[in-house]
C-alpha cells in the first residue's frame, strides 16, 4: 500500500496539535505517517505529543531555534518517507476519506503533481464560507494572478515534485505556499477532488490569510499582506510582465484587498485611494464597493458583515459543522 506522509509545522500551539494528529490518523487510508516539526517554545507541545510515543506513525521533530513555517516544512519533508506528501496546518481538519479520494485521482492522472480539494471555512464555531476548486490541468501562468487553490491543507503533492522544484523559500515569512505553487505549476499539472474535505479555521492565531479573505478576517496585518505581495512581485516580475492580463489582475486584486483592510482600520481616505486605483485596473462590484464603504466607514461594513453571517448561518446546517473532526 502507498505510504503517505502528512507534514505538520507547528509553533507554540499545543491546543491545536492533538486535533491535527487525530484528523490525520483517522484517515481511511491506513498506510500513513505524521511528521510534525515544532518550533520552540515546545514544552507544552511536547507534552501533548508524548501521548503518541507508542505510535510509530507519529514522528515529532523539535527545532532547537525558531525556523519559521517554510524552513519547518522543509525539515519535515527531509524526514518524510512517503511517496505522497500531504500539507496540514495544525489548526485545520480533514474528512476521513480525504487522502483515499486524492490517491484515486493521483492514480488516474499520472502527469498530475498535485491534487487539492474543496473545503469549509469555520470561525467562532460557525461555518462561514466554502472553498470550491476550479483550477486544474496546466495552471501556469494563471497562478501568478492569485492564489486560489485553497485551503492549502488540502494539497497532496508527489514527493518527486520537491526533487524537481525544491522546497519552500525561507525568505518568505508567509506566502511561501503561493510561491511554491507557482514553481510547481511550471512543471506539473494540477487536479482536484470537488468536495469540501477540509475545514480551515479562522482565529486570531492564524499565521496568514489570503488577500481575498480580508473581508472575513479584518485583523489581517496589512503590512504583512503587502510584504507577501511585494516579495512575489519582486521574485516573479519578469514573468508577470510577460502576461499583461495577469499583471492587470494582480494589481487589481492587491488594491481591492488593501482597500478593505484600510476600511477596517478606518483609514477612509487611503481606502478610497486603493478602491479608485482598483477601478482603473478593472472596474467591478468589488472595487466600487471599496470606494463606497470608504465613504460610509467601517460601521457600515460591519453591519453588512453581520447580515452576511446571518444569511450564511441559514445556508449551512449542523451536519456541515460536524462532518469533519470538530476539535480545535
Could you describe the 3D structure shown?
- The chain has helices at 14-25, 43-49, 69-79, 98-108, 159-165, 176-187, 222-241, 244-264, 268-281, 285-296, 298-315, 318-322; strands at residues 4-11, 32-39, 58-62, 84-87, 93-94, 112-123, 126-131, 156-158, 189-202.
- It is an alpha/beta fold.
- Helix 1 links the parallel strand 1 and strand 2 (32-39).
- The protein contains twelve helices and nine strands.
- Helix 7 (222-241) packs antiparallel against helix 8 (244-264), helix 8 runs antiparallel to helix 9 (268-281) and helix 8 runs parallel beside helix 10.
- It has two domains: 4-206, Alpha-Beta Complex (Spore Coat Polysaccharide Biosynthesis Protein SpsA, Chain A); 211-296, no CATH class.
- Strands 1, 2, 3, 4, 5, 6, 7, 8 and 9 form a nine-stranded mixed β-sheet that branches.
- It is globular.
- InterPro entries: Glyco_trans_2-like (IPR001173), Nucleotide-diphossugar_trans (IPR029044).
- It comes from Natronorubrum halalkaliphilum.
- Residues 5-122 form the Glycosyltransferase 2-like domain.
- One of its GO terms (molecular function) is hexosyltransferase activity.
- Keywords: Transferase.
Amino acid at each position: 500500500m502507498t505510504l503517505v506522509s502528512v507534514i505538520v509545522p507547528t509553533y507554540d500551539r499545543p491546543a491545536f496539535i492533538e486535533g491535527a494528529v487525530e484528523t490525520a490518523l483517522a484517515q481511511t487510508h491506513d498506510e500513513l505517517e505524521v511528521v510534525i516539526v515544532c518550533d520552540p517554545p515546545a514544552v507544552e507541545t511536547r507534552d501533548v505529543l508524548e501521548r503518541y510515543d507508542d505510535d510509530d506513525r507519529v514522528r515529532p521533530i523539535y527545532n532547537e531555534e525558531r525556523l519559521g513555517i517554510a524552513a519547518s516544512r522543509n525539515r519535515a519533508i527531509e524526514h518524510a518517507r512517503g511517496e505522497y506528501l500531504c500539507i496540514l496546518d495544525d489548526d485545520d481538519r480533514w474528512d476521513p476519506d480525504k487522502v483515499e479520494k486524492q490517491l484515486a485521482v493521483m492514480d488516474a492522472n499520472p502527469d498530475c503533481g498535485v491534487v487539492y480539494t474543496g473545503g469549509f471555512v469555520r470561525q467562532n464555531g460557525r461555518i462561514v464560507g466554502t472553498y470550491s476548486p476550479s483550477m486544474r490541468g496546466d495552471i501556469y501562468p494563471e497562478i501568478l494572478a492569485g492564489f486560489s487553490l485553497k485551503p492549502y491543507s488540502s494539497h497532496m503533492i508527489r514527493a518527486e515534485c520537491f526533487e524537481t522544484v525544491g522546497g519552500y523559500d525561507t525568505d518568505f515569512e508567509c506566502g511561501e505556499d503561493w510561491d511554491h505553487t507557482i514553481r510547481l505549476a511550471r512543471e506539473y499539472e494540477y487536479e482536484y477532488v470537488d468536495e469540501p474535505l477540509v475545514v480551515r479555521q479562522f482565529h486570531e492565531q492564524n499565521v496568514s490569510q489570503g488577500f481575498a479573505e480580508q473581508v472575513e478576517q479584518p485583523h489581517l496585518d496589512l503590512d504583512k499582506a503587502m510584504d507577501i505581495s511585494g516579495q512575489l512581485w519582486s521574485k516573479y516580475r519578469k514573468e508577470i510582465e510577460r502576461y499583461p492580463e495577469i499583471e492587470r489582475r494582480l494589481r487589481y486584486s492587491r488594491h481591492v484587498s488593501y482597500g478593505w483592510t484600510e476600511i477596517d482600520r478606518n483609514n477612509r481616505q487611503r481606502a478610497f485611494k486603493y478602491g479608485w486605483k482598483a477601478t482603473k485596473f478593472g472596474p467591478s462590484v468589488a472595487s466600487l464597493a471599496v470606494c463606497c464603504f470608504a465613504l460610509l466607514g467601517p460601521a457600515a461594513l460591519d453591519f453588512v458583515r453581520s447580515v452576511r453571517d446571518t444569511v450564511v448561518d441559514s445556508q449551512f446546517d449542523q451536519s456541515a459543522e460536524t462532518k469533519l473532526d470538530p476539535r480545535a
